[in-house]
Amino acid sequence: MRALVWNGVNDLSVETVDDPQLLNPNDVIVQVTLTTTCGSDLHFIDGYLPGMREGDVFGHEFMGRIVEVGRDVTRRAVGERVVVPSFIACNRCWYCEHDLYSLCDTTNPNAALQQPILGSPTGGIYGYTHPFGGYAGSHAQFIRVPFGDTNCFAVPDFVTDEQALFMSDAVPTGYMGADFCDIAAGDTVAVWGAGGVGLMAARSALLHGAGKVISIDRIPERLTLAERLGAETIDYSAEDSVEDLLREATGGRGPDAVIDAVGMEGHGTGVQQLYDRAKQLARLETDRATSLRQAIHACRKGGVVSVLGVYGLTDKFPMGVLMNKGLTLRTAQQHGQRYIPQFFDYVEQGDLDPALLITHDLPLEDGVRAYDMFKNKSDGCIRVVLRP
After folding, report:
1. pLDDT band at 288; cut points 50, 70, 90
2. pLDDT band at residue 314, thresholds of 50, 70 and 90?
3. Do 255 and 352 share a domain, yes or no?
4. Which intervals hold domain Alcohol dehydrogenase-like C-terminal (predicted)?
5. Are 158 and 30 in contact (CB under 8 A)?
6. Within 13 Å and on the Cβ side, how many CA atoms surround 254?
7. Which of 73-77, 277-281, 341-345, 376-380 has the lowest mean pLDDT?
8. 284: pLDDT strictly greater than 60
9. Quick one: pLDDT at residue 278?
10. For labelling alongside 254, which of 37, 151, 228, 305 has CA 20 to 30 A away?
11. Do 212 and 289 belong together in one domain?
12. How many angstroms separate the CA atoms of 388 and 386, rounded?
């Protein structure tokens, strides 16, 4: 089959690789209909996350049709159209039983690679470094899905392929970020980052009852889409102080909750950004955490800081601000299996249309070009759909 593979830092290619096989009786094989670029991929493409090997197939956000099932699969069948969460869950361990699916104790066969860094392993994830399981990714014609009964969700007829695609990762990640905020009716929520996840976090905050959502970014097409989804916007590159604007918008208090949907390769202005960029280039830290620091400073006293961005080693973390303001910090990789069924209802009711994220639609053979556009935000790119 054809697949998009990682060969080294900023070195991608589309190659012919082996087709996946059923390895366990609970596996299914999915023929990938749609897969998409994700900002998390840029972290290992750019060399900030270790653990990729030459020839690894990457990609973790996808939907498709089941073409083969293992003998122990009972709830899914060949021919079903399905969406698959990016993190792999077993539905049997303590964490899965408590709806903490991305923390699954079963699905990461390379737990020993993670334990020295994280203390305990996460669940496995498709196409996202060997410490996260070493699974082949979704930028391919076919993919093996372990625990098919748990991880494949049948897509109703009224949901399009394009809508279902983002229920794999961008929608549940953004929705979880809003869920973490404990939003009360009328609350103000500020969201740093208006990429796919940030846009879905902004929309999800409104679905949770927020009275006002403010999206913060610098890319015009992202800010325009955030407004279409119901948010107010701030172009941080055109303002002296985002924090001052947020205080003005909230009677001097600051937002009730803040969501960081940026992560380790964030952009910003001023001396701190130059400092972070220099240390990151020298590999003295992995993170340009401008948005995270800014969100913590901006949040009102007693509020919630919800972190969705992927981080590694962050310098100058404002722990004193977090503690003295009585803030609650909540973060996780997404627990998609908890949330996906309700997204179908939102689509049917007309409250959610994830397909709005798509700006480019390309064949998988153009995968290298897709990531170049996505990384450099050229041609108005927000998300590229790849069709194997």
Report:
1. confident
2. confident
3. no
4. 196-263
5. no
6. 19
7. 277-281
8. no
9. 62
10. 228
11. yes
12. 6
Which two structure tokens, joined as six digits, stand for 175? 């929705």
- The two tokens of residue 365 are 């053979």
For the chain, what is the mean pLDDT? 94
- b/e sequence 207-242, b meaning 16+ C-beta within 10 Å: bbebebbbbbbbbeebbebbeebebbbbebeeeeeb
3-state secondary structure of 67: strand
Please say if the pLDDT value at position 272 is more than 70. Answer: no
Q: What is the pTM of this model?
A: 0.95
Q: How confident is the model at residue 119 (pLDDT cuts 50, 70, 90)?
A: confident
Q: Are residue 48 and residue 162 in the same domain, yes or no?
A: yes
Question: Do 201 and 230 sit in the same domain of this protein?
Answer: yes
- Phi first, then psi: give them for residue 344, nearest 5 degrees: -60, -40
Domain count, the chain: 2
176 and 315 in one domain?
yes
- 285 and 358 assigned to the same domain: no
Q: Is the domain of 163 the same as that of 200?
A: no
Residue-wise pLDDT for 17-49, tens only, equals 999 999 999 999 999 999 999 999 998 999 888
Q: What is the DSSP string of 88-111?
A: E--S-SHHHHTT-GGG-SSS-TTH
Contacts of 119-126 spanning 24+ positions with Cβ under 8 A? 122/87, 122/333, 123/87, 123/88, 123/89, 123/95, 123/333, 124/87, 124/88, 125/60, 125/86, 125/87, 125/88, 125/333, 126/59, 126/60, 126/62, 126/84, 126/86, 126/88
Question: If 0-12 CB within 10 Å is exposed, 13-18 middle and 19+ buried, where does residue 247 land?
Answer: middle
Domain-terminating residue out of 284, 301, 331: 331
Higher-pLDDT residue of 283, 51? 51
Longest dimension (CA), the chain: 61
Is residue 160 domain-shared with residue 248, that is, in the same domain? no
Please give the Cα distance from 386 to 367 (Å, whole number).
7
Q: Where are the alpha helices (DSSP H) in the chain?
A: 39-45, 94-97, 111-118, 148-151, 161-165, 170-179, 196-207, 220-228, 242-249, 271-281, 290-298, 319-324, 336-349, 367-376
